[in-house]
Design brief:
Elements lengths: L4 H7 L8 E6 L2 H17 L2 E8 L7 H8 L7 E9 L3 H13 L5 E7 L4 H4 L2 H9 L1 E5 L7 H11 L3 E2 L1 H11 L3 H15 L4 E2 L1 H10 L5 H9 L3 H13 L4 H23 L4 H7 L8 H9 L2 H19 L7 H12 L11
Parallel strand pairs: 1-4, 1-5, 2-3, 3-4, 6-7
Helix pairs in contact: 4-6, 7-8, 8-9, 8-10, 11-12, 11-15, 12-17, 13-16, 16-17
Amino acid sequence: MQLKPEQLLARLQKPPLAPIYLISGDEPLQQLELCDAIRKAAREQGYNEREVFETGRGFNWNRLNEAAASLSLFAEKRIIELRMGSGPGNDGSPALIDYASRPADDTLVLISMAKIDKRGQQAKWFKAIDKIGVTSAVWPVEAAKMPGWVQARCRQQGLEIAADAAELIAERVEGNLFAANQEIAKLRLLAGDKTTIDLATVLNAVADSARYDTFEMIAAACAGNLPRALHMLAGLQAEGTEERAIYGALMWQLRRICHVAEACAQGQSAEAVFRELYIFDARRLPYQQAMQRLDSGSLQRLLWHANRVDGQLKGYRSNGNPWQSLGWLLTRLAGYDPLPAAAP
């Protein structure tokens, strides 16, 4: 069943949950929040165990059925997450079709991946999932609708923002919803007891706040400029930015870099892959710089390690400091290989 994100959110309030959810798209904040909503609904209905798989090159798809068939240590319901990047490939397609034909009891499968085009929606594996589960696509907010998105987001934070102030934020973030969300969070802090944000407030915030943008930090790591990346991470922490927002942006960028690197390793041209992902000239440099130092296999291993940071942020792993772990991920992305003790 294909649902719009808002339809899916409404349906999550009405048990039971579907056995499989597939969330696709290239807009990281909306995808992250939609997956979080599914996880939250699942936890409220007793899905207290969780296992995460990054299905990059070399992934053994038998692990899906093995994980679903294994008995829970505490006889609890579980969530199995598959993070597929661009898709399941030739090995994963039959595995997903097989699983969809006989989904495991007390198991919810949550799949997140990049945008699926119309041809992909005709694939047998997609139809098999859509037949028994829920599929939903998130789309980038159009430039003309971005001020309205900012106003709606502010209302969620208990703020009313003037139209010209919302337009200024929309212009500055250039469609980057993570950056827009950070700007709104800072305004919430600056507003204090005020509930209305005008243009002067936004202008003052722009002038007075140090600019530590998450994607600029990631670009610095991709360029191999580790001191700058770590300095910006410390700035984001000092500003009160949520670790999950940074992690979501980092993982979104890292998955896309992995997708480009893997496609190039399989013989596709970088130009064709960039066009497929709508990565235009001005935004290609971080990808190219990261791929000069890290091959496809190294990037996939970094994705695997990043799951441990996700566990810290979601509360599934109590040990470790998420901020230190984010710094470790940036260190590896920058091409450095720290001592084992520095790994998350």
